[in-house]
Design brief:
- This protein has 100 residues and is mostly helical.
- It has a domain of 61 residues.
- The protein is 77% helix and 0% strand.
Length: 100
């Protein structure tokens, strides 16, 4: 995995992006995978129109990439803190045994 994972930005019209962000990842995922027609008019269009389905899939991919990048950053910070703590303990022990 690269040092900073790349987020695949989707070329989505702002109107559709607003709909996706308003309803969230879970609802959009259910609309794409479910067999029932949703009640909200905006979601019915996402459910029925092929281009909007592609935009929704691309948006979900973008969200997942963004979450993965966020998790990767947290992991890098955790490892950095761990390394500094270990170095601090080593320095403390060296100073402890060096003094009479």
């Amino acid at each position: 995995m690269p040092l900073w994972p790349k987020v695949r930005k989707a070329n989505i019209p702002e109107i559709d992006r607003d709909i996706f962000e308003r309803f969230g990842e879970t609802v959009i995922g259910l609309v794409l995978s479910g067999g029932l027609t949703p009640r909200a008019a905006e979601l019915v269009r996402v459910y029925q129109e092929i281009p909007k389905q592609q935009y929704a899939r691309d948006w979900l991919t973008e969200c997942r990439d963004s979450h993965m990048r966020h998790e990767w950053r947290i992991e890098v910070v955790e490892w950095g803190v761990f390394i500094f703590v270990v170095l601090g303990v080593i320095v403390d022990f060296r100073l402890l045994f060096r003094c009479p």
